[in-house]
Amino acid sequence: xxxxxxxxxxxxxxxxxxxxxxxxxxxxxxxxxxxxxxxxxxxxxxxxxxxxxxxxxxxxxxxxxxxxxxxxxxxxxxxxxxxxxxxxxxxxxxxxxxxxxxxxxxxxxxxxxxxxxxxx
Length: 120
What we know:
By secondary structure, the chain is α+β, with helices and mostly antiparallel strands.
């Protein structure tokens, strides 16, 4: 991956993603938070059903839209490892989630995917 893109990925948290609607087959674009944790790029949310997560379970291909008009094709994989999920929710940069929901509930029930970028 190009070093300036990797640097941008490590600095930005608010991004947009485009998924493919699991029922409609239409592109769905939304703003969401992304975190770099242990060199892995993670999208997560608070517990409960999330359309973006259901879409990615049905079709894991997506586009990550970064500031400056940078678009990256990616594949999303669900994160099931409870130890890593706890590291994500215990990280300083994810404090907001812990302010809303106990960490044990976050670890057990929050949607979470890891992004892998085409060509990397």
